[in-house]
Design brief:
Blueprint: H1 16-21, E1 32-38, E2 45-47, E3 55-57, H2 59-72, E4 76-81, H3 101-112, E5 117-122, E6 135-136, E7 142-143, H4 144-161, E8 165-168, H5 175-185, E9 192-199, H6 206-212, H7 233-244, E10 249-253, H8 259-269, E11 273-277, H9 279-290, H10 296-310, E12 314-317, H11 320-328
Parallel strand pairs: 1-3, 1-4, 1-12, 4-5, 5-8, 8-9, 9-10, 10-11, 11-12
Antiparallel strand pairs: 2-3, 6-7
Helix pairs in contact: 2-3, 4-5, 7-8
The protein binds ligand PBG.
């Protein structure tokens, strides 16, 4: 008898049905959160040059995107406003206006498509003239506690408009507990908090800053509040704090370069973990496709599966619409 390997791991890979049967991870449209940019105007679609295939939509158009997302089986939409220049200020007060672009979009979406979740970003950068996520002192430092107070008001403003998930992306200390307390105090018991718990000061956010119009405004960098890419233990401490303060789920951002963080957070805490495949990652993938380095559909699905395999409950991705269409076929 000729010798043979005791175990042939190729056996279960030999046919498509068997590969399907043995898949350890599944990816469905319900795993996707679709980040969408909103702008003033009516019937408006403004393409974003550094994010090919992504546009800013007017409030009437965002409703159409909401219906499209629902029909594709996408679970949730994330909204980001491009505030008109004349409404931006040092203190970002427009974030607290109950009729700002964000609140109008939330109301329109919840009216027209109540079946879909609406996640809203809490941070001041789309509203400030300096492009920072918080209030800046004379030395240019983003002050923590006064910013947290403003973020509480911003979160309440969004919750009153109908936001389902408050997602603070600012990285101030203590803001999750403060926001949770304020939401409970006003009776928003089932409004969730998805904390951007481990958010890194990353070079991958450039196209997003174009999309919300803060790129040219930003003074300096965000390294005094966003995390250093060298650090992983610190990410676990950030997550532990946000969970202790009442976060329902936590996010790691950016995505692919930080899958080690996703996996460690999932293993350590066993809570819902999300990742944000950010604008620079999207642009990088699209550039690779344009350069003939790979095939878009396969790259998109492989990338998103990697997030699930690492332990994500879901992924924020600008490819959500496209991926959901591929998965629904
Ligand atoms: C800011 C915010 C950023 C993103 C989401 N919220 C950028 C930043 O921190 O400067 C980036 C998302 C992306 O790049 O797709 N509060």
């Amino acid at each position: 008898m000729s010798s043979f390997p005791a175990l042939r791991l190729r056996r279960t890979r030999a046919s498509a049905w068997s590969r399907r049967l043995h898949a350890e991870t599944v990816l469905t449209p319900a795993d996707l959160i679709w980040p969408l940019f909103i702008a003033e105007g009516s019937q408006a679609e403004e393409p974003i040059a550094s994010l090919p295939g992504v546009s800013r939509w007017s409030v009437d158009n965002i409703v159409l995107r909401g219906r499209e997302a629902r029909d594709l089986g996408i679970a949730c939409i994330a909204l980001f406003p491009n505030t008109p220049a004349h409404l931006r200020s040092d203190d970002g007060a427009e974030a607290l206006n109950p009729d700002n672009l964000m609140c109008r979009a939330i109301r329109a979406l919840k009216d027209a498509v109540p079946e879909i979740g609406v996640l809203t970003d809490v941070a001041l950068d789309p509203y400030t003239t300096h492009g920072h996520d918080g209030l800046v002192d004379a030395a240019g430092y983003v002050v923590n506690d006064a910013t947290a107070d403003a973020l509480v008001q911003q979160a309440l403003n969004q919750a009153r408009a109908g936001s389902d998930i408050i997602a603070p992306s600012d990285m101030m200390d203590g803001r999750i507990g403060a926001i949770r307390g304020a939401l409970e105090g006003e009776g928003h018991r089932n409004v969730q908090i998805m904390s951007y718990a481990a958010k890194y000061a990353s070079a991958f956010y450039g196209p997003f800053r174009d999309a919300v119009g803060s790129r040219g405004l930003l003074k300096g960098d965000k390294k005094t509040y966003q995390m250093d890419s060298a650090n992983a233990e610190e990410a676990l401490r950030e997550v532990a704090l946000d969970l202790a303060e009442g976060a329902d789920s936590v996010m790691v951002k950016p995505g692919l370069p930080y899958l080690d963080i996703v996996a460690r957070v999932k293993q350590r805490f066993e809570v819902p973990v999300f990742a944000y495949q950010v604008s620079g990652e999207y642009a990088m993938l699209e550039a690779a496709v344009a350069a003939g380095a790979g095939e878009r559909d396969a790259l998109v699905l492989e990338t998103l599966m990697a997030f699930k395999r690492a332990g994500c409950s879901g992924v924020l991705t600008y490819h959500a619409g496209h991926a959901a269409r591929l998965l629904g076929r």
